[in-house]
Amino acid sequence: MSFDAHRFESLGANCEFGFFLQDHGNHETSLFKWAEVIGIDGLTRLLRNDFEAMFAYENVVPFNASMVFDRSYWIAWHSKMQAEAADPTKPLSRMNARFSTPEPERRKLWNDQNAKLQHFVGKLRQGLRTGERIFVYKPRLQDAVTEEEIVTLGRTLRSFGSNTLLVVTLAERPDDVGTVRRIEAGLLRGFIDRFAPGDRANDYSGEVWLRLCRAALEDVDRGAATEPAPSVTASIPGKAKSSAVAKALARLRRWTGLR
């Protein structure tokens, strides 16, 4: 079947799917296309909060030499605000970084970038209301994602409209590579053979990504994702709720892990 890359939008967790879309003719920039999403929880919380206080000046800190990090939602974007190592005897990292751009200039750069991001928020809100796109999320290499987290994000998206979420994770069996499984209305899980290396997000598994997108389109086009959206607060049968301690430890691992 044909493949229309404009029917898809990336929700992160990094630039990999953005490069795939670009290579297939979708050059439209969106909120998360070139972002780094540190875990699925912050993304879900941002959507549930309707983007409230996203990229607030006081919450923006250095992520690396050319990216800044919203520490309230754990999302990083490329930026003209520059950073340097706080301790020059150690390598620059998000745990050892400070802004090198002077504050007055940084405030102006933040104003400009915030205006652009809010523009993309408006476009995303519109897309969520129309429900015409398939939103795609893939975890970072070092992040694990549970089915409970996947379902929660999917139902959050469905609370805006008849949206479809495709979550792509590594296949545990060779036979699963390139296949898509429907979890519930508007929620699909795809399986890939590999993700792109963290420092080469454009080195993706192109053939498998294409198979996954075509399978998702086929599912949506035959009307499999048109059932009423379930309540976001509905219970998930057979899934034990993660404890607050476990979630805190997971966030700590994500924060201290290598990119």
From TrEMBL:
This is Papain-like cysteine peptidase. It comes from Aureimonas phyllosphaerae.
